Amino acid sequence: MGAYNEVLGTAECPRCHNKVEAVIQFKYGATAHHVYHLGDILIWGANDIGIPGVAEVIVDGEGEGSCPRCGFNEDWPIVITVHRDRLVSLSRANGEYDFSQGHEGFIVLQS
Known about the structure:
With about 110 residues, this protein is mainly β. It contains no helices and nine strands.
């Protein structure tokens, strides 16, 4: 994945929908291996990907974690919602957003 950031949080297991503690890799903000939690504000200023201060952006992420209920232990796609540089939510990707249309891995919903 090259230079990326991580957000630590709870995400839905793609197999059984159990809540799982996960590490989600993503490329938005200063991609310099920063580690965030939900509620944190993104750092900008080095190796930036994205647009600082956007009202709402959806970012493509890759989750990794192990589900204690069903044993799922693979990477899975996660959507990260960012409001004005604040990481606000994680959700299991359901195909609603097509990140393949752009080369950066994010979609601006509201500028």
